[in-house]
Amino acid sequence: MSEAALILWLLYPVPGNTLRYIILGLLLVLLVAYVVGYYTPSRMVLRLENTITTLRKTLDHAMLNCPRDWAGLSEMGCQLTQVELSLTGIRQQLLDIGGLLVWRKYFQGLREIFKSITECKKEVKDIQTSVSRIMEGEHERQLRLHVAEERGTLNALIGHVEDIGLVRRRRARNVDALPEHMV
After folding, report:
1. Residue 97: which residues within 8 A CB-CB, separation 6 or more?
2. Are residue 28 and residue 3 in the same domain, yes or no?
3. CA-based Rg of the chain, rounded to a whole angstrom?
4. Which residues cross the membrane (predicted)?
5. Which long-range contacts (CB under 8 A, 24 or more apart) does 104-113 make?
6. Which residue, 143, 158, 177, sits at the end of a domain?
7. Taking the alpha carbons of 85, 88, 89, 90 in that order, is the dihedral positive or negative?
8. Domain tally for the chain?
9. pTM
């Protein structure tokens, strides 16, 4: 069943076609208002700031746990700070276009802001990917080290067991080699 058919089926109990279409129109208006509200520049900046805050915590955690890549992670921290600086500029642009009464300039300013937000999102996504790769690489290195340690322990144990087996075989040979009155 398609979405339109489902909506009309749900509206079937509502008496009168006019009332159904009014309710349908209100639902459509609410949906459009939600979508427009979700994609306002100020909300997009807020979501990006939340992502940056989370990424900053992840970056700090990675710097503590991945000492081999500390220099690269520090560079990513600088890039993230640069993105935060760009967001400050975007907020400033939002304040500047808020008072514009000329619609053409207003929409032109909005287009520039959306472009800047998109660039910041891309940079944040690239930094997230790089940090995740570094953390996964470090995790893999630690797992490989752990496997090597376990194999070393297992090989040492097997060697010890083989040595014990050799000693037992030697004793058995020695016992067989003894004269019968000594056994």
Report:
1. 105, 106, 109, 110, 113
2. yes
3. 35
4. 20-39
5. 110/41, 113/41
6. 143
7. positive
8. 2
9. 0.67
